Inverse folding.
């Protein structure tokens, strides 16, 4: 992929949130109508023939393209959120982070075994959050799962892709 317009409009903020980190700010892609259209169109072309019935958006930037793409694919949207944000009964998955653990949740009635699920988030760095989300979705035993990110960070020695290569099909729109 690596669309030049997307790359040219992606903001990089050095030393945020800490020294040595080059933060990739996707808000510049969302605020630009042309970039938003490119992302939705490219995702649609990738997934239009996959039979997607649900798109899981990972909190919170993952909600944006999950919703836009779901409209084009005639699919439902499932929110994957931090604990305490979803009002009905949920199932949870905890995962390790650099400084402790975190947990994500999905409603227990969100996905079933007849669904073909696309999990979407904005950024792949270490992959921990998405791996936890994939583990959570797989508890529902869907027919098939796919994973997508807007951006994959490859230039900082991160190897998030390694978590997914043997377990599901994964795509990204931009590699930096």
């Amino acid at each position: 992929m690596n669309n030049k317009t997307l790359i040219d409009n992606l903001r990089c903020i050095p030393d945020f949130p800490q020294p040595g980190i080059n933060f990739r700010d996707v808000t510049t892609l969302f605020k630009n109508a042309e970039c938003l259209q490119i992302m939705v169109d490219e995702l649609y072309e990738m997934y239009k023939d996959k039979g997607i019935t649900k798109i899981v958006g990972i909190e919170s930037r993952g909600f944006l393209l999950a919703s836009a793409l779901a409209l084009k694919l005639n699919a439902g949207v499932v929110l994957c959120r931090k604990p305490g944000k979803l009002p009905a009964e949920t199932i949870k998955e905890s995962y390790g982070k650099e400084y402790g653990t975190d947990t994500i949740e999905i409603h227990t009635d969100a996905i079933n075994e007849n669904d073909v699920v696309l999990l979407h988030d904005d950024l792949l760095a270490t992959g921990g959050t998405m791996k936890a989300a994939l583990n959570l979705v797989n508890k529902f035993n869907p027919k098939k799962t796919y994973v997508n990110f807007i951006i994959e960070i490859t230039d900082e020695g991160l190897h998030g892709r390694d978590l997914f290569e043997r377990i599901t099909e994964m795509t990204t729109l931009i590699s930096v």
User: Anything to note?
Assistant: The longest strand covers residues 116-124. The longest helix spans residues 33-47. The chain has five helices and nine strands. The beta strands are 11-14, 22-25, 54-58, 76-80, 90-97, 100-107, 116-124, 144-152, 169-175.
